[in-house]
Design brief:
Radius of gyration: 25 Å
Largest sheet: 4 strands, antiparallel
Order of helices and strands: EEEEEEEEEEEEEEEEE
Strand order of the largest sheet: 4-10-7-8
Number of helices: 0
Number of strands: 17
Shape: flat
Structural class: mainly beta
Length: 238
């Protein structure tokens, strides 16, 4: 049974961004070996709980609100006012939580549980956890931010260049939490040293791609951008 610390006001204090090692929480580590590996001053393995109050401004009442956690180690779980909003376990990318439904204007209690126990078999010598590289620390050492965006937003953009064909395919995922279907237009601009221009995409317009986005889903759209061949210049006669 998971302990219900998200329902409790936590008494201790710790600085984030930071780690339990830096805050000197845990068991004093072993003496450093003469070679090969690092040694942690304080070793802590398991779930650590972090909590603080946040204030959501009234100006964000019609915005999409996310909590951005950069360089988490390892798994995070999130509660807002005692309501669980999910978990993330990536060691490669930031942990991002959509907290819109729980973040009305006003004050809220945010609780984050960070667990640095091994979640996936990444191998004994994996740089993310081994003491030959960065050690298996616990904490959040990157940026911690509340972000407000429009309720229709670009979730992801990918580009697929075709050097032989002289084209670039652009594919974007667009998110929508307005509760109704919307139509979006994406505009792309291609620049490079030969001053290439963008030709109209199949959907029409100057380098544009568009599509319908459902009430709550994420739609995919794409467009092609073709560079103009370099212009020949006539050399003056001798």
């Amino acid at each position: 049974m998971v302990d219900r610390l998200w329902q409790t006001r936590l008494p201790d204090r710790i600085q984030l961004p930071g780690s339990t090692d830096r805050a000197r929480y845990g068991v004093p580590g072993r003496p450093a070996p003469p070679f090969q590996r690092l040694a942690r001053v304080f070793e802590y393995v398991g779930p650590a709980w972090y909590q603080r109050d946040i204030d959501i401004p009234y100006a964000w009442r019609r915005r999409r609100i996310t909590l951005f956690l950069e360089r988490c180690h390892w798994e995070t779980r999130l509660w807002v006012d005692g309501r669980e909003l999910g978990s993330r376990d990536s060691l490669s990318v930031p942990h991002v939580y959509d907290i819109t439904s729980a973040a009305a204007p006003g004050r809220h209690s945010v609780t984050i549980r960070v667990d640095n126990r091994i979640k996936h078999d990444v191998g004994r010598w994996a740089t993310a956890v081994s003491e030959e590289s960065q050690t298996n620390w616990n904490g959040i050492v990157g940026r911690i931010e509340l972000r407000a965006t429009a309720r229709v937003w670009i979730e992801e953009v990918r580009t697929y260049p075709d050097l032989i064909g002289g084209t670039v395919k652009v594919r974007a995922r667009v998110g929508n939490i307005t509760g109704r279907g919307v139509r979006v237009t994406l505009t792309h601009t291609l620049r490079h040293a030969r001053q290439c221009v963008v030709t109209p995409a199949p959907s029409g317009g100057r380098g544009q791609g568009g599509g319908d986005v459902s009430k709550s889903g994420i739609a995919m759209s794409s467009a092609r951008q073709e560079p103009r061949p370099p212009t020949a210049r006539r050399e003056p006669r001798p």
